[in-house]
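User: I've been trying to design a sequence by hand for this structure and keep getting stuck. Would you show me what you'd pick, starting by listing the structure so we're on the same page?

Assistant: Good idea, let's start from the same input. This is the structure you sent:
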């Protein structure tokens, strides 16, 4: 019975951590441009937002994603990949 009680408590703890992550405001950084998450981006993964932003910011299409959390905000930075030209 003790193990069953512990098993039932585990998903509740995991759920509260997920809710805490979901409440963080995301800010997307593309070079010096900041894009604050709005309703159209809510619930989407960083990769899905990357595809959405690639239409207006082509450099985002092949960028790497770097996330940092600070002061209750999750900053998702799209870093251009360095490559050869030509």
């Amino acid at each position: 019975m003790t193990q069953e009680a512990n098993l039932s408590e585990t998903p509740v703890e995991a759920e509260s951590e997920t809710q805490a992550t979901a409440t963080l405001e995301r800010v997307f950084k593309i070079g010096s441009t900041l894009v604050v998450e709005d309703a159209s981006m809510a619930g989407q993964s960083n990769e899905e937002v990357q595809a959405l932003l690639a239409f207006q910011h082509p450099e985002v299409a092949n960028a790497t994603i770097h996330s940092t959390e600070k002061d209750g905000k999750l900053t998702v930075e799209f870093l251009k990949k360095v490559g050869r030209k030509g």
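That's my pick for every position. To get oriented when you compare it with your attempt: Residues 24-86 form a domain with the Ubiquitin-like (UB roll) fold (CATH 3.10.20). The beta strands are 25-30, 33-36, 64-70, 73-79.
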